[in-house]
Every structure is written in C-alpha cells, then in structure tokens.
Amino acid sequence: MEIERKWLVRPEEIPYDLSTLPALEIEQAYVSFSPVVRVRRINGGERHVLTVKRPTEYGGLANDEGEKDIDAELYAFLLAIASGNIIRKTRYLHALPNGLTEEIDVFSGALQGLAYLEIEFPDVAAAESYPTPGWVRADVTHDLRFKNSALAQDGMPV
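^ thats the sequence. predicted structure below, dont judge the formating
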C-alpha cells in the first residue's frame, strides 16, 4: 500500500537549493484511468516502470499499488496506446532527519509552474499526524484535481 500526503508548493518558495539534491527526470503516461494503469520512463530510459493503483477507504491518502519494472520495448508499446497528456516532471529527493523523504515534483511542459511536495509514510496514523510544513501553499492530499492521473486527463487545475 502507498500512503502519502501531497502539498501544493510555489517553486520559488521551496526552501532548498534544488540543484544540490538528487533528482529523477520522469515521463509518465496513463494506459487506463480506472483502474489507474501508469507507465513511467525515468532518467531518459534508465528505468521503465508499470504501475497499477486502486483506491482504498482512505481516499487520496492511500492506494493499493503494484509496480513492475518493464523493458523499453513494452514501455514504448504502452506509451503508444496511452490516453491523455504525457506528464513530465523532475523529482527532487530531500532526506529528512526522521527517516522520511520529501519528494518535490516540479512539472514542465503544459504543467509548467506546478509543483508538489509529497511524503510517503509507513502507516496511516503517521501520515494523518504529520504537521503541514510551513512553506507549502495547501494540503491537496484529498483534492482529486491534483492527482497525476487527473492532470493527465484534465490538465492544470484552476
């Protein structure tokens, strides 16, 4: 199960020098929106991943998720039949002293200007009790407009 909180941030207000953080270049597309079936190419083909997600009773906070590495050929095939827009983003990884990792996604292309902070948690209680960082704009964990699958279908939320 994937348990994560998501906050909307302003790129100019991120309190870290992103150029000093480890980063992943991610391209992702959706083969299906219900259930969510997503493919990702990471770092230009260093890795290709197929993911299937199913919602749980926790709403946007937790999903049942399965991932499998796939080869470039299968990725290309699935990308060709994908629906919606391709999402492109850079994910910066910032390790926290408590053992958690902040993932800061800065989008490009049609979603230029959009940025999130996401943190994955070991359990629902830890996620629900985690304090909202002071530098974020809004908690969008349960706002379906900010799901990556919704961004691929509908574009930038208004």
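The first strand starts at residue 2 and ends at 9.
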